[in-house]
Write a structure and sequence with these properties.
Blueprint lengths: L2 E5 L5 H11 L9 H6 L3 E12 L10 H13 L15 E12 L2 E9 L8 H15 L4 E7 L3 H9 L3 E6 L10 E5 L6 H19 L6
Parallel strand pairs: 4-5
Antiparallel strand pairs: 1-2, 2-3, 3-4, 5-7, 6-7
Helix pairs in contact: 4-6
The chain binds coenzyme A.
Length: 215
């Protein structure tokens, strides 16, 4: 199986919102990813499963006149199906996404989430590595994040990649007043961080290449 990681675009928003709702069902209000794409500080990537295409149901219907036409024309005259209004059924299947805000030399991870069926297979690591790479490209020198105190899986993932707990924000999450654990890296350009990243990258490449890893 192969996966592509690329910058998030407006076309991806319906799938991204679905993944967000599935991963964070109690988070209210949900993040406005459309606004995030306009935000100059924000940088988001999506991971796609190259062996699948998205179901029509996950593609947001077009708005306005084009949207209306695309729904009406097939009902009345199937042969008169304008290219410009044909719904796009063959979009890349997004399996997860992640994002950062870059403020001065700090990259703050705003989110990382995978579809449930893709969790636990090393793909969270793949997204995190892409997020670290993106932070380096954008010249950040350290990375930070907040994670729910109860989210042991995410904390273990971050811990594996050199994030350590540097503080707690009491009652940070509005839905249940749960604490946030603040985690941070050392300098991501430091030789020790780079050496660990290289090792983890190589180990993950072997894991994802092995046929047993992903069924
Ligand atoms: C958190 C999340 C991105 C992790 O991705 P994932 O693909 O499930 O995790 P991976 O398979 O890449 O595992 C990476 C590491 O995470 C930890 N981990 C993963 N699943 C775990 C589990 N069930 N129990 C404990 N640790 C686990 C381990 O440290 C693992 O490394 P290892 O395989 O060497 O033990 C994913 O589970 C997810 O989308 N969760 C819902 C959204 C969320 O909580 N996001 C974090 C917001 S801060």
């Amino acid at each position: 199986m192969t996966y592509t990681i690329r910058a998030m675009s407006h076309e991806d928003l319906a799938q991204v919102n679905n993944i967000d709702r599935e991963a964070f069902p109690t988070q209210w209000p949900p993040p406005n990813y459309r606004q995030e794409l306009q935000n100059k500080l924000a940088h988001y990537v999506v991971a796609c499963d190259d062996s699948r295409t998205v179901e029509a149901a996950e593609v947001k219907p077009r708005k306005g006149l084009l949207g209306l036409l695309s729904r009406m024309i097939p009902l009345h005259k199937r042969s008169y199906y304008l290219d410009a209004t044909r719904p796009e059924y063959t979009r890349q299947y997004i399996i997860g996404f992640s994002g950062i805000w870059v403020l001065v030399d700090e990259a703050h991870i705003t989110n990382i989430a995978l579809r449930q069926e893709y969790q636990g297979k090393g793909l969270g690591e793949l997204l995190l590595i892409a997020t670290i790479d993106l932070s380096m490209i954008l010249k950040a020198s350290l990375m930070t994040l907040e994670v729910r105190a109860s989210n042991v899986i995410a904390q273990k993932l971050y811990g594996k990649y050199g994030f350590t707990q540097v503080g707690v924000r009491r009652g940070y999450y509005l839905d249940n007043r749960e604490d946030a654990v603040i985690m941070s890296t050392e300098s991501i350009t430091a030789p020790s961080f780079q050496a660990q990243l290289k090792q983890l990258r190589e180990a993950l490449a072997i894991k994802l290449d092995s046929p047993q890893a992903i069924e």
